[in-house]
Amino acid sequence: MKNLIVAATFLFVFSLGYALYADYRERKKIIGRLDFYGRNQPRFAEGKSWDVSFLGQWYRNRFAPSQATAHRGEKLANDLYWAEVFLKPDEYRLMKILLLLTFFLALLLSRDVMLSLLVMLLSYITPDLIVRMRKNKNRKLLGEQIYYSIGIISGSLQAGHSLMQSMRIVATEIENPIRREYNRIIKEINLGIPVQTALNNAKTRVDTKDFALFVNAVLIQLKTGGNLAEILDSIGSTIRERQKLDNELKTLTAQGRLSAGIILLLPVALAIILYVINPDHIMVLFTTTLGRIMLGTGLLGQATGMFIINKIIKLDSL
Questions:
Q1: Measured between alpha carbons, how far is residue 62 from residues 59, 66, 94 in Å?
Q2: Terminal Cα distance for the chain, rounded
Q3: Is 77 found in the same domain as 14?
Q4: How far is the C-alpha of 99 from the C-alpha of 226, rounded, in Å?
Q5: Residue 28 structural domain
């Protein structure tokens, strides 16, 4: 009977996961085709995105998000956009629910509650960690590319090219993610959107101080005139000095950040190793009153240490 339940659950998870993956591939193809016309929207608003997923449609009808969770949905959609994950927020949540079913499978197969809870925790946080890592990587790369893109545009303007031609050069010479943003600006302008609106849309999407400086300089030059190349040279120098100082601050706080990571991960790793080697030894912390007190005191001390270290190493970006 147990084997039958395991098999049925596995088939259910596999079929839903395969259907979700097939829809993901189809969505990626659609986005690739519509990207040619500047339609790669960063946010998949409810009721305004492509209805090509029966799973997503079922999930929306069954678990429609309330107004209180709308802001979290917008944030999740933005995170998925920068992580280059072509899923809607509701489909992403459905994928996490499917991953949580591994808890049920692990419990049936091993009958080990602690191992099952560990599998459930890993299944729940792994997608978020992957999205956050890819988003941070792309955002960091974008911040470095802004300086180079402004330098290319400034040099192109000095060579006699127009602003549109200069942005096309950037979209050709520099890789993603900045290429995607400049391509979208160009395609929006080609579709008839005013230059000011296209630049303001890009400033909202990118949401960095450096890119906002560039957009504001271009908008002011379009209204008042002037030598845009010289202005961009000055902005590029400012961005370069700011990035240099930011890198120096990160270098000075690297040891503190490493210490914070060790303090956070070492007790968890040690507990897992002890549980694998000698479960009875570590289970004393969970089955006795003194063990629970010691465990709670340790967690409180760890949280206090993390808070203090975070306050010491956290510096506002310039």
A1: 5, 12, 11
A2: 62
A3: yes
A4: 57
A5: 2-111
Structural domains counted in the chain: 3
How confident is the prediction along the chain (318 residues), in pLDDT tens digits per residue? 555 665 666 666 666 666 666 666 666 666 665 655 544 444 443 334 434 455 555 555 555 555 445 567 788 888 888 888 888 887 788 888 877 776 667 666 766 667 677 777 777 888 899 999 999 999 989 988 998 999 999 999 999 998 899 999 998 888 888 999 999 999 999 999 999 999 999 999 898 888 999 999 999 988 888 888 999 999 988 888 888 888 888 888 888 788 888 888 888 888 888 888 888 888 888 888 898 899 899 889 888 888 888 787 776 555
Based on the fold, state whether residues 242 and 257 are members of the same structural domain: no
Residue 63 placed within a domain: yes
Do 276 and 292 have their domain in common? yes
**For residue 184, is it within any domain?**
yes
Separation CA 16–CA 6 (nearest Å): 16
